[in-house]
Amino acid sequence: MDIQVTSTVVEIVAKDIDRSLEFYRLLGLTVPAAEGPHVEIELPGGNRLAFDTEEVIAGMHPGWTAPDGGGRVAIAFGVAAPEQVDALFERLTGAGYPGPLEPFDAPWGQRYATVTDPDGTSVDLFAPLRS
User: What's the Cα-to-Cα distance from 5 to each of 8, 32, 47, 117, rounded to whole Å?
Assistant: First the structure.
């Protein structure tokens, strides 16, 4: 039998779901208020991003504990222009989120930066450089 993946969901396990949702709102995503321990949104391109509290994950996976030292997944968001990378970086770091990699012109042809969400997930920001 051929199996075809029909959708993709990236899930973030949040220690403080409201703080995590605010971070992704500042990034420019339309994220509703949490009405429980699970929130899911559609991303540009048809993929989905889900947020669950640590308690939800622990309830589904007996013995699960939150990893030390942050997340193990990176999420990347592409924007239309290099100056938008800089603006998003400033918006997020200005709101108090860490920015471990300041915007720079990468040798692979992108303006690139990294910020960190409240749960330690690396969030890369990128845009094609103008030729």
Answer: 8, 27, 12, 28
Give the other-Cβ count within 10 Å of 13's Cβ: 22
DSSP state of 68: T
Contact, 127 vs 84, CB < 8 A?
yes
Taking only the tens place, the pLDDT of each residue in 32-90 is 999 989 999 998 888 899 999 989 888 888 888 888 766 667 888 999 999 999 999 99
Q: How many residues are recorded in the chain?
A: 131
- The radius of gyration of the chain's CA atoms, rounded to the nearest angstrom, is 16
One-letter amino acid for residue 51 of the chain = F
Tell me if 118 sits within 8 A of 19, measured CB to CB.
yes
CB count within 10 Å of CB 6 equals: 5
Residues 6 or more apart whose CB falls under 8 angstroms from that of 75 comprise 10, 12, 49, 121, 122, 123, 124
Nearest to 50, CA basis, from 61, 42, 62: 42
Residues linked to residue 49 through DSSP beta bridges, in sequence order? 10, 41
